[in-house]
Every structure is written in C-alpha cells, then in structure tokens.
Design brief:
Length: about 475
C-alpha cells in the first residue's frame, strides 16, 4: 500500500505550506486546469460536477422561496454603468472592456459584466409600471469577469461562475425581509449540504457592497484559521432605483421608487469545501456534493466472477447513491490512494474471498474506518453511512471553528492572538472607521461581520477604549 501510494503524486503537507497544499489538491484531484490566459481556469469534469450539484440543490431552495430564473446580456454599455456613481467606483479597477466589434471600433465601450445590477435596473425600468408588477424575484446563473491582480483557482479568478439574485419590491420592509431570507438560505445550504458552519452577520460600512444600504454575509473558517466570505446578500434600498428611474404607480395612485436586493454565491464555495474538509491525502467531499459517492474497487478482478459481481453491485447501489466501479488495470493500492485523493466518501472493496463469504469491505474516506458488510445489507448500509459522514463532517468542522474562535477585550491580546493563534477573534468595536482601518493596517485583520447573535464582551472598543457599540468577528481572510 505504501509503495502504491507513492505512485499517486504526493501533495505538500498542509502544515508545511497551506497555500501549496491547496494548489496541489486542486490540480492533482483533477478539479481544474490552467489556460493560456492568466486567471482563467478550465473546470474539469469533476470540478464542474461539484458545481452542478451545488447549483441544482441551491436552485431548488431558491425556487421554494418564489425565485424565478432569467438570463441577461453579458455586456453593459459604459453610459449605463456610470449612472450609479458608488457602484462604478467600487468595480472600476476590475472591469474588462470591449472596444471593438470585429474590426470596427465601437461607438461606446462595453463592460464585460462584473455583476449585473445595472442591467437589471435597466430591465426593471422597462418592465415595472404598477404595484401589480411587484415583486420581481429573479435570479440568473452565469459567469462574470473581474480583472483580479492575484488569482487562485476557485478562490479568486478573473472569470468565475456564480448566481446573482436581483429582486424589486414595493416597500423597504419587503426588501429587507428578502435580503435576510436569502442570507439564511445560503447559511442553511452551507451547513446542510457543504457541511460548513458559518457565522451570519452584517458587514461594516467599510466592507459593504458598493451602492448598498446594507450587506449581510456568511463567514466560514478555513483549516488554516483564515476566514472566507462564502455568500452575501445586499439591501439596496431605493438608491439604484433613483439612479435608473425604476418607478411604479402604487395603490394610492402615487409614483414611487422600487426597493431592491441582490445576493450571490460563487464557485468559491468549492474552494471552501477543499479548505474546510481536505487533509494531507487530498480532497474530502461531503456526500451531498460528491459527484461519485461510492467507488467499487474489484480485488483480483481478472479472477472469474469478480467484475460481474462488481457490475451487479453497482447496478444495485445506483438506486441509493452515485456509484462507479474502477475497472482499470492499476493495482488496488494505487486505486485506493487515487480514490482518497479525489475525496470519494466511500469505497467498497470486493474480491474472490469476499464473494465466497457474501460480503464486502466498506471504507470511509473521512475517517479511514473499515467495516465488513453483507452484500445483502449494502443497499441499506450505504445510504445510512453517507448520512452519518455528512453529519459528522459538519460536527468536526464546527468543533474546529469553535476551537479557533477567540475573545479579545484589549488590543495587546488581540495582536498576540492574530499572530499566534489563527482564527476568528471576537472583539468589541466603537463603530469608528478609523479604528477598523487601524486594526487592518497594523494586524492584517479585517472586520468579517457584526454577527446577528451579539454578545457583550466588554464596555469599550478593543482598539481605542471608547464606548463599544457592536461585537465584531475579526480575522485574516482570503
């Protein structure tokens, strides 16, 4: 087994170099490939299959709340983009521009969408005239382009896949309710499907989305103690509506501006899954997003009846799980290591001796635990095991987050913690932007969010000593 493992390229230990470990896992588990354009990646079949499972399950949750899918254009005229000043300033450094159509120079530059608020506003301005047209609860699945300086697969690429919800409402109260509702959809999805516990809260004024009244976020903690913003939901109020003239005639026959929201998650979630659950043998995928949940590995497969038994087992188990059989001529040890690298939740080993005893060996990827199971019971045992793995992965991730969440009531403790004990730091804050800026400049820690579940840790701000207004989760982040 040890020699076979060497045949599967070793990955850097996460304790030695976490960034290199991450890159090794992404590439060697065959999730992505590089292209000839820096910052643009190929999503290989396994990587894309994970995204499809995320997309499918999120889409079901969206539609259960009344969301409808639409699709808007890729290009945004510069004049349309510039109508909302704060929004433009927030995205200007990352915008990619189209200047020519064929060999002809365009009369006006076109922006390749970094996000679609302006397009939805232009659409709503034409589509909404009366209170009877509201609410509009739309979402689109698409790609966007942001010209990032530094890129890393899934976490930060110049083109990435995502969904962006855009809604329009008659009242501020309806918009706020939708903003919070969608954040909770994201949080529940991360925990239920990705087995990633999150902190729900509001971004500070400094960290909120350009042009928003308020931004809500879910923050997850990676294995190395860094935070990852894993989903956001924005309440735009009527600011965009006023900039783009999105009005409706209300029941009282007066003209009013709509109130809007926007919310999104991206393929960054795949990066989160890697960094929360992965280990030094590669990926560890939660069953609900594992393209292959069970890999059957025939032992001594050239012996009579082994492959036929594996095929019959695959057909039987396909009724309860996503199953494949590795019939390649690689050694069993190589196949085991390869399956571990790819993060497949369960493997089933079946050979001549197993068949004689009417049993198979089932091995968990997350714990390495092995058990011998009767072939007659596998159809019941496998779904139960997958469910157990899903739950226990969330429990372990939550325990890791809680063990790496610290409290600081004075600045010396804050600085010592951020340097020597990576993780979330809970601290009180006065609400002054100057303190937030100083903490970031001096420690590299940013205000991840002001959690909805507030705690009173002290009376004074951790930085300046003035009266505290909010408890904040701080941390270094991706």
């Amino acid at each position: 087994m040890a020699n076979d493992k060497k045949k599967v390229e070793a990955i850097t230990s996460m304790d030695e170099d976490f960034a290199q470990w991450y890159t090794d896992v992404v590439l060697k588990s065959d999730l992505t490939g590089y292209t000839s354009v820096k910052g643009f990646m190929v999503l290989k079949p396994t990587g894309y299959a994970i995204w499809e499972l995320i997309q499918r399950q999120l889409d079901e949750r969206f539609k259960a709340t009344g969301v409808e899918n639409v699709y808007l254009p890729l290009l945004i005229p510069e004049s349309l983009l510039e109508k909302e000043k704060d929004h433009v300033e927030g995205f200007a450094p990352e915008v990619a521009w189209v200047t020519h159509g064929g060999s002809s120079k365009l009369q006006e530059r076109m922006c390749v969408r970094p996000t679609s608020e302006t397009l939805f506003c232009d659409f709503y301005q034409k589509d909404i005239t009366s209170y009877r047209d509201l609410p509009k609860v739309y979402n689109q699945w698409c790609s966007v382009v942001r010209w990032e300086k530094e890129t890393r697969p899934f976490l930060r690429s110049r083109e990435f896949l995502w969904q962006e919800g855009h809604t329009a409402h008659a009242t501020a109260e309806e918009a706020e309710a939708r903003t919070e509702q969608m954040l909770n959809v994201y949080a529940d999805f991360c925990e239920d499907v990705l087995a990633i516990p999150v902190v729900r809260g509001q971004k500070t004024e400094k960290e909120k989305f350009a042009g928003a009244v308020a931004t809500y976020t879910i923050e997850a903690l990676m294995h190395d103690g860094k935070a990852l913003q894993s989903g956001t939901s924005h309440n735009f109020g009527d600011g965009f509506a006023k900039a783009y003239g999105v009005q409706f005639t209300d029941k009282d026959n007066t003209l009013k501006y709509v109130h809007q929201t926007s919310w999104g998650v991206t393929t960054r979630l795949i990066g989160a899954v890697i960094m929360v659950h992965g280990d030094n043998d590669g990926l560890v995928l939660p069953p609900k997003v594992a393209p292959t949940q069970v890999m059957i590995i025939p032992i001594q497969q050239k012996k009579e009846g082994v492959l036929e038994a594996a095929d019959a087992l695959q057909e039987k188990l396909s009724r309860v799980a996503r199953v494949k059989t590795d019939k390649t001529d690689k050694s069993p040890g190589f196949k085991f290591a390869e399956q571990e690298m790819r993060g497949i939740p369960l493997r089933i080993e079946v050979g001549p001796r197993d068949l004689e005893n009417n049993e198979a060996v089932v091995v968990r990827r997350d714990t390495g635990e092995k058990q011998t199971v009767s072939l007659d019971e596998l159809e019941t045992v496998i779904p139960a095991l997958l469910d157990t793995i899903q739950k226990e992965m969330l429990e372990r991730a939550r325990a890791h987050r809680d063990e790496h969440t610290y409290t600081a009531t004075d600045y010396e403790t804050f600085k010592d913690t951020i340097e020597n004990r990576p993780g979330f730091i809970k601290a009180m804050w006065c609400g002054d932007r100057a303190c937030e800026d100083a903490i970031k400049e001096e420690t590299g820690a940013t205000a991840r969010c002001m959690p909805f579940a507030q705690e009173h840790l002290a009376d004074t701000c951790v930085y300046c000593g003035k009266e505290a207004k909010k408890m904040v989760y701080f941390g270094r982040a991706y």
